[in-house]
Amino acid sequence: MTPPVYVRQALTEDDIVEVATIWNRSAAWLRSRGLDQWQYPVKWENIRSTVADGTCWLVYRVDGKAIGTITVESTADPYWLPSDNPDDALYVHRMVVDDGARGSELGAALLDWAARRARKAGKSWLRLDVWKSNPALHQYYIDRGFNLVRIDDNPSDPAGACFQRPTSIELHLGPDVIEINHLGTPAATAPHPLEEV
C-alpha cells in the first residue's frame, strides 16, 4: 500500500524558500531533458503573493520531507476568456513534484485533491495552463482527464496551453492526500507525526 502524503498551506519565510527550492530543482530537471520550461529565476514575488493569499501548499511525506508544491487559486490567467466563465473554476499553478516522488502518480493525486477543493467551493471546473512547447506535459494532463481548450497564440508568451476537467472527475491514482494544518494535525483527528518534525 502506498503511504499517504500530507498537504498544508505554506505560511512562513522558510516555507517560501522550500517552495522556491523545489521549483529550482524541477527547473534543473527540465533543463537536463532539453526543455525550456521554467528556465528563468524564481519569481519570489509570485510565491510570496500566493503564500499571503493562502493558496500555496507544500506536500510532505509521512517523515516530514517536502516533496512537492501546488498553488490552487480562483484567479484565472488572461488566457481564459470571459466566454469560459472563469469564475466557475479553480486554477492550478506551479504544481511541482520533486525528483524522488516522480512516477508515483503524486501529481494525479494532487489534481484529485484540487478538484475536491474546487467542487467544495461550488466550482464546475479545475483548470490550468502549461508551457506550449512541452507536448509530453500536454499528454500528461490529457491522460489525467483534462481536455485541451485552446493554445493561446501570443508568440511572446511560452505558457498558454489551456486545459480543464470537470471537478466531478477523480482518477484515484497515487497516494491518498491528507490536508493538515500548520501544526501537522489533520482536521478533526489526533496529532499527526508531522507535528513532531
SSE topology sketch:
Layout: E1 5-9, H1 13-32, H2 44-53, E2 56-60, E3 66-73, E4 89-97, H3 106-120, E5 125-131, H4 135-143, E6 147-151, E7 159-166, E8 177-179
Parallel strand pairs: 1-8, 4-5
Antiparallel strand pairs: 1-2, 2-3, 3-4, 5-7, 6-7
Helix pairs in contact: 1-2
Can you describe this structure?
By secondary structure, the protein is α+β, with helices and mostly antiparallel strands. The chain has one domain: Gcn5-related N-acetyltransferase (GNAT) (Aminopeptidase), CATH 3.40.630. The protein contains 4 helices and 8 strands; from the N terminus they run βααβββαβαβββ. A hairpin with a 5-residue loop joins strand 2 (56-60) and strand 3. Helix 1 packs across helix 2 (44-53). The radius of gyration is 16 Å and the shape is globular.
Low-confidence stretches: 188-197
- Summing up helix and strand content along with how strands pair, one would put the structural category as alpha+beta
Largest beta-sheet characterization: 8 strands, mixed
Helix tally? 4
List its traits.
single chain, 197 residues, alpha+beta, Aminopeptidase, eight-stranded mixed sheet, 4 helices, 8 strands, globular, disordered C terminus
